[in-house]
Amino acid sequence: MKNLLLSILCLALLQISPVKAQLNPNFTSRLQVVFDSVCNAYNIKGASAAVLVPNIGTWKGVHGISEPGKPITSDMLFGIGSNTKTYTSCIMLKLQEMGKLSLTDTIGKWIHNQPNISGKITIKQILNHTSGIYSFTDNPNFNDSLKANFSRIWTPEESLGFVLAPLFKPGSGWSYSNTNYIIAGIIIKQVMGQPYEVTLRNFILNPQGFNNSIFFPEETSKSPIASQWSMGVNQQNLQPLFSIPDYDNNGIFSFAYSAGAILQTAEDNVNFWHNLLTGQIINASSLAQMKKVVIIGTGPNCGSIGYGLGIFRYFNFFNGHPIYEHGGTNLGYINENAEDTITHICFTVLTNQDSVSNDILLGNVIGALQKVTIHEKLAGVDLTSYEAPEVKLYPNPTTDRLNIKVDAFHEPLTFRLYDISGRELMSQSISDGQASVSIESLAAGMYISRITVPSGGIVAVEKVQIIR
């Protein structure tokens, strides 16, 4: 009887236990085929990729070689370059959460006696690149010094010695500067009273379980590191850096510091982006601050481009969805990462060569992988959720006028109203996030509104009810 009852209990548990969703093998096979095809098309020497589908799983793919006879494997670490800046921004926001600093603090509290760096610049201005500080990596003298001795260990303070005159008055423009995030690392070290890499590990890497991520050269790993192929040494031919007798990674990673010295696997990287953008690393208020962008231009098929606190925002690939991302470049490494803000699917592609551009990785390689996910009906992907600024349409239901308010979205927008057949009935521009439209001429019924950016990317879709 006891055995019978136990069997019945086990059967009942089997019946009520949820079946764990899994990625369809046909889907993952298609991802690999497309990944190989596009990597071959752009002569990518070696690459590691990951696609994370929320609530289902993560596909990991590899392509090409680390060096002759040594294929890329999914456990290999790649330099993520300026993707490190997103980590540094997270640490700054966590320090603000802890009350140890404020983004409105001026950097003069920590940075002294630097003739080309104003102490009146705020932390926020260095994180969103509106400081006007010259990027030390643009100084030809720095590049000459780096190539003269690749084994040299650089201190962040030495890098600041190559900063030339400011590009503009703080807050009056935008210019990407590696110096900004070197300064951020110096501040983090002083605030915490410990090396930057210790705070990075204690705040992010260890709590998030990123066990295949290191800050180089201060940390080492048992995992293999993908060998680099570069055009950055002689500017002419792609060559393996391991073939250069006096080459050493210490130089390029020590100077990169808090602006670009993390190495990790594609799986750790894609998990970082997923965890960050789902509120598992910084709190909701910090994430909202991170996502508040300065408009820095427009691009083909991606509408307006914005930069927040260590994070880019684009629109479109093939579906018009906004994405958040940050790529990275270092000698012999280029990578791109992106999260679709509607499906929340995350993409990472890491390469071991610097002759392929970030635009190709984002628009063509990740774009091709994203196209596969668009065509696949993925269980568990919520196409109705939307990480966008809060949109208010009021009153709704309404009789004669509809007011529109879009919070924290400072760029041109257009309000469009459609009937249920999809026919556009009216459109009106939204200035400074606000507008008011007359709907007196429309019949009672249900309508659909869209708020779009100039490229056509959709910011919000809302139902509108008109009553008489």
Sum up the overall morphology in one term. globular
Biggest β-sheet strands, sense, barrel: 10 strands, antiparallel
The SS-based structural class is alpha+beta
CATH architecture of the largest domain: 3-Layer(aba) Sandwich
* CATH first level of the largest domain: Alpha Beta
Helix content: 25-40%
Low-confidence stretches: 4-20, 379-387
Quaternary state of the chains: single chain
- Tell me the CATH superfamily of the largest domain: DD-peptidase/beta-lactamase superfamily
How would you state the average pLDDT, rounded? 87
CATH topology of the largest domain: Beta-lactamase
Distance between the first and last residues' Cα: 70 Å
Strand content: 15-25%
Number of helices: 12
